[in-house]
Amino acid sequence: MEQRERGRPRVSLVMPVKNEARRIEQALAALRAQTLPPVEVLVVDGHSLDGTADLARSCGARVFFEEYGTRAGACQVGVQNAVGDLIAFTDADCVPAANWLETLAANLEDGVVGVGGLIVNEGDTFWQCAVDGALDTLVGSANSVQGRMFRERRFVTSISGSNSLYRRADLLAIGGFRTDLVTTEDTELNRRLLNRGKLLYIPDAIVRHRHERGLRDFARRMFQYGFGRAQSLLLGPTLLMPVASAGILLLALVQPRYAVLLAALYGVAVLASAAVAAVRKRRLRFLASLPVVYLIEHAAYVAGFWVGVVRTRLRGARKEPFAGGSVP
Fold first, then answer.
1. Does 247 fall in a domain?
2. Is the pLDDT of residue 222 over 80?
3. What are phi and psi of 31, to 5 degrees?
4. Longest dimension (CA), the chain
5. Residue 184 within any structural domain of the chain
6. pLDDT band with cut points at 50, 70 and 90 for residue 326
7. Predicted confidence band at 4 (pLDDT cuts at 50, 70, 90)?
8. Which of 93, 146, 283, 286 is the most buried (most CB within 10 A)?
């Protein structure tokens, strides 16, 4: 990558990848087109089998390999090898807007330790669009960073790992990423960074996310999110579903009628959320598709969470690798 004009921020871009040959060239082209191009792009590969690393090199990226089997591990390798004063993160299935890096860097003010922006999910198929629609609701996102659609800049408690920028010095000062985490590595990192300053959300820093996940891949990803949440046990709305599910199950053993009532209230919330999304997005099919997505999402997340609790807490295996391998 070409060197920046004197006085402009020196930004290193870290992109964790695995088997992304189909999409990485488009992502790297978007980075080359930035109004503030990075001084380098570090592609950290989880030992892809499809030529991802060779394609990245041909596009001018510096290629490294990670041995942790996690996205967090890949990000940590990037932090350790970056030369820029600032480090931005995105993924190979993301296409940042041309002013993305410039917008983030311009808002990394004194007292702000991290800046992130808007994630626009873009699906093509019926179920991919349904997944996007679900993640754009409170019931589907639990206020996660991936589901935020704020219209104004504001201070937040976390920013997305695929649309974020930090000072390298701050990342090194807190020890970087927890490389054992299967997911939620960005949320966990941000919680520690809040001890050093504020996190700022900028809606004008836009990344388009082409996840291409149907129901099966979405369920697998939600299981991983649940597993990662159990590893970190970070407090927040995302703990409500697994805790509530366990409570309803226990209640069913002693007071079945109340358990049925709570399950019915959950059903009402799901249907109401689908109806609101259908009206807001002007897609009547959401009335039928979103409840299916919600049920799959919540069931997979809850299952992943409690499997994670057993494996990382009751067995005392905090560093035990996840059987699913690297997170794509």
1. yes
2. yes
3. -75, -35
4. 70
5. no
6. very low
7. very low
8. 286
Tally of domains within the chain: 1
Residue given tokens 């969470």 in the structure block: 305
Q: Which residues contact 216 (CB under 8 A, 6 or more apart)?
A: none
Q: Is residue 64 part of a domain?
A: no
* Structure tokens, 76: 């940590």
Structure tokens belonging to residue 89: 């993160």
Question: How far does Cα 271 stand from its chain's mean position?
Answer: 26
**What backbone phi and psi angles, to 5 degrees, belong to 323?**
-65, -20
- Find the domain containing 257 and state its range: 216-314
Q: Is residue 235 part of a domain?
A: yes
- pLDDT tens profile 122-140: 878 888 888 888 888 888 8
